[in-house]
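User: For documentation purposes, I need each entry recorded in a consistent format: the amino acid sequence on its own, followed directly by the corresponding structure tokens. There are two entries in this batch. Please keep commentary to a minimum and don't merge the entries.

Assistant: Recorded as requested. Entry 1:
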Amino acid sequence: MRSLIAARPREMMVFLYEPGLSTGEIIGGREAKAHSRRYMAYLEIQDGQVKKKCGGFLVKTNFVLTAAHCKGDKITIKLGAHNISEQERSQQKIPVRHQIPHQQYDKKTLNNDIMLLQLSRNAVLNNWVRLIPLPNAKSRVRPGSMCSVAGWGWTGRNSRTDTLREVDLEVMKDDMCHLYTGYNHSTMLCVGKPGLGKLPYRGDSGGPLVYDGVAQGIASYVDEHLWEPSVFTRLSTFIPWIQNILQKQH
């Protein structure tokens, strides 16, 4: 199985997807109330012979936002899910028509780790599926702000479940993430107090960092030793890019 612990210059980084394995849950979190996060999307990714899992979130009836490193040969989206191992009547399963990663995405530093997925048909908005608002281009989440993140990623190195999990995380000052080579404060957010054992993990890539009901970040990578803050893509920086694509694909 391919290792997710990246080589230098990011020797302390771990991708938040896990190829070839089922997903589990957020570390140090709790099970989310069923369908309380109706914008959440579960991504089933086929990349050659490898199967990967990621999270994402619905920003338009035919568009999901996720991380660029979740790109694959074929992606299918599940919306309205709580337990991804069950065929819940709330679920909508929709193939992805187009994958649109940021043109300046850097695989080495994970800078510009953002991707839009155009769905093959519109999602039906209902009691289980909703959009989440995006920030404006000038908004900034201040250090000390308490945010939340959710996903179907691992609870730890060897534990997992199939229900959506959530955890509250504090936005940190950028200098707390300077241990990561390539950390860029203009395109990234430093999130989570060191040593608390609360963070997204494998399978949580692409999920939203939510503050006051608005998506402010995209889960990107964590410290290999699960001790330091996590890094999220800073959404406000990419609002012009997102709007440009949505207008072109309208």
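Entry 2:
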Amino acid sequence: MIKTILWDIDGTILDFHSSAENSLKNTFKKFGYGEITDELLHMYEGINDVYWRKLEKGEITKEKLLVERFVEFFRKIGIENARAKEFNQAYLNGLLDTIVFMPEAYETVKKLHLKYKQYIVTNGVKQLQHKKISKAKIEEFFDDIFISDEIGYEKPQIEFFNHVFDRIEPQNRDEVIIIGDSLTSDIAGGIRAGIHTCWYHPSNEENHSDIKPECTVTSHLAFQELLKQL
């Protein structure tokens, strides 16, 4: 029986894609780089994903990731002398301008906190994540918040999850489930930690990776139903 839920936030509770797209468009204009097209957005997302995978593998620090993703992006699109560090900070600040929930996410975490212990587990930037969670007004639904910047390890590293379990109430790990949209951080980390795993995957595209979640849901309502079966 599940008693504890570990929640990823970006892409699982909050619609990070919408916030990121809005911030990129506004920051491009602010820095005088013109309009950012859908093609350029897609290019940036690909570069950004590569750098976050490097972080998960311990191949780069988050500080370098945040700047170097834009250095590479600007180089590829031919913007010379781009102020990547300043651009990144403006982009991060802009992420707070648009707080959008994934469908049924707010209602789900609000409802489930009455029955389950709930914790946020995120690889996000600590200053940004705390502000984002506060602005979304969801703190009251969670018993604690674990951010990789504050722990010193990233999901899916086992040290991240060991830190979490050292600080939450004594748990039988068979009574814990993690839900997240990332196979490489949330699901891989949950598997390493020996807990139940649920891949939140609204697009319902086929999983071609070697990482196999125990469960997959395409909506938060489906996750609520799943919990009744575990």
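Summary note for entry 2:
The longest helix spans residues 38-56.
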